[in-house]
Amino acid sequence: MPDSQLTTAVVENLGNGYDVAALRADFPILSREVGGQPLVYLDSANTSQKPRSVIEAISEHFAEHNANVSRAMHTLGAEATEAFEASRTKLAGFIGAAQPEEVAFTKNASEALNLAAHTLGASLKPGDEIVISVLEHHSNIVPWQLLAQRTGAVLRWFDITDDGRLDLAKAEAENLINERTKIVSLAWVSNVLGTVNPIRQIADQAHQVGAVMVVDGAQGVPQRPTSVTELGADLLAFTGHKMLGPTGIGAIWGRYELLEKLPPFLGGGEMIEIVRMTGSTYARPPHRFEAGTQPIAEAVGLSAAVDYLTSVGMDAIAAHEEHLTAYALARLGAEPGVQLLGPSDAHERGGAISFTLATDDGEQIHPHDVMQFLDARGIAVRGGHHCARPLHERLGITASTRASLYLYTTTTEIDALADGLAYVRDFFGGKR
Amino acid sequence: MSSDVEAMYAEIILDHYKAKHHSGLRDPYQAQVTHVNPTCGDEIMLRLALDGDRIADVSYEAVGCSISQASTSVMTDLVIGKSVAEAMELQQEFTEMMHSRGEIEPDEDRLEDAIAFVGVAKFPARVKCALLGWSAFKDAAIQAAGSREGQE
To answer: Do residues A160 and A237 both lie within one domain?
Structure first.
């Protein structure tokens, strides 16, 4: 099986000691086969794979330290509480938060965005405006639609340019962000187009009119060095499982002065101060936003993921991503029938690469069919609308195929994808 | 290497995908339904016309993958001209076959070209694609039969 050694044998050195083969050896799943072929995992924007250190940290927590946090007073409870709070501290440091209390754990980025919508929404009035964009993931659309329905606020949208960037000129012409704007919520990095949005610039506009800037960091935080102060956000939502951590844990970061003013989201244990039959008072942030037993083992796993990312270095990860994105855009773009979506330049662009594929006769091949044939070759991609239906509608298509990259992706895998696409195109074009 | 997937995309399926029998929306009709596959955005709008208890016509406009398109085409061949009860039995048999993980030996005399989809049943993620048109048909048949009874 010469193929199975291919991906692991490749050493890609960017000249800065970034050794993909060595990193890949830390991810047990990357050495498995799918359908008799070495796995080519190009679905990291969906969920990332996990290094051994994360898997072991979770296992060790359950084997040695498991207890509920905060309320269990015994030794195990103290150990679990310490590990849980240490994870918060580590995560806060990872994103450049001023203090650990600015980070509240959630189930995922969707829950974090729902938390933002619910708590910020408590002060909205009819006629107030919420601004999002057409390139958002459904999790940064639907919570705001629900909020607008509840409050009578108006939902307004950034459009995109043909190159898949936010159309700032159109927004200015429409006076999109104005004195009625109370909330602006945008993805840092698009999960479909890879577009890196100019958050700082838009946050400045939002702040000038007194609006709160919410950022969906689900794709950005795993891929780029994060400094919440430089980013310009007031609230930042992200998720653990896309950054080498386990599923079931995400977080919201917020400026402490803002968090302090926000009402609770979910009610329950641990988010209270005093509960009386006549009414309750609530804990201070972050615990105000953490009702019920938290994802404790998941927090421990996420902490190990942050350690892993830090040891590789977020600058190196971002550089690898840009290098691979440039390679993939060139390689896939040269493949007949492939129409790439999103910015054509790898600069200020994340590693989510979506495209459509047509036969030589110009017949579109549905992404489900593309995905199925690639899967038979061991290549995992996503086909569909990637939870961004309004964006696909805006682009005039119903679905696309998406390959997404991460710190363990190799150029050999991009080559395998390109070869696979040629095979699919020829199969449906009647050449096989 | 890819024999499984190529077997799944049997010639019959690809032929129907290209030909799309009975496609396009036509009048008259007694029921019109829209069904979607929320994970991929595939959509079908389907109309059903009854002549007494017989299915006189099934017409549709759909966007979707080859599996969903071909399955809808095969379905129209099978149900047009049959009684509602007969067509619903076929719908039931097809659905059972799709949920069998490829382990049911389908009855070719009854399901005709639809037996080609037994290969798709081995791929759980694609079962929904194959059922999209059939589910829309079932829904429309129930509505049309209901409104017919209402008139009687």
So the answer is: yes
A12 touches chain B (CB under 8 A): no
Examine the predicted complex and report whether its ipTM is higher than 0.85: no
Domain membership of residue A325 as a residue range? 2-38+313-428
Tell me which DSSP letter residue A363 carries. P
Q: CB-CB: which of A35, A369, A427 is closest to B65? A: A369
Q: Which domain holds residue B89?
A: 3-151
Element (H, E) at A279: strand A279-282
- For chain B, helix (H) and strand (E) counts, in that order, are 6, 3
User: Residue type at A421?
Assistant: L
Reported as type and span, the H/E element at residue A123 is none
For residues A248, A253, A258 and A261, what is the CA-based torsion angle, rounded to 10 degrees? 20
Say how many CB pairs under 8 Å bridge A and B: 56
Q: Is A252 part of any domain? A: yes
pLDDT tens-digit readout, A64-91: 999 999 777 899 999 999 999 999 999 9
Find the catalytic residue in A387, A414, A417, A418: A387
Question: CB distance B4–A373 less than 8 Å?
Answer: no
Closest-CA distance of chain A to residue B114, Å: 18
> pLDDT at residue A172 above 70?
yes
Query: Does the pLDDT of residue B1 top 70, yes or no?
Result: no
Strand, coil or helix: A186: strand
CA–CA gap between residue A419 and residue A416 (Å, rounded)? 5
Residues of B in contact with A384 (CB under 8 A): 39-41
Average pLDDT value for residue range B70-96: 96
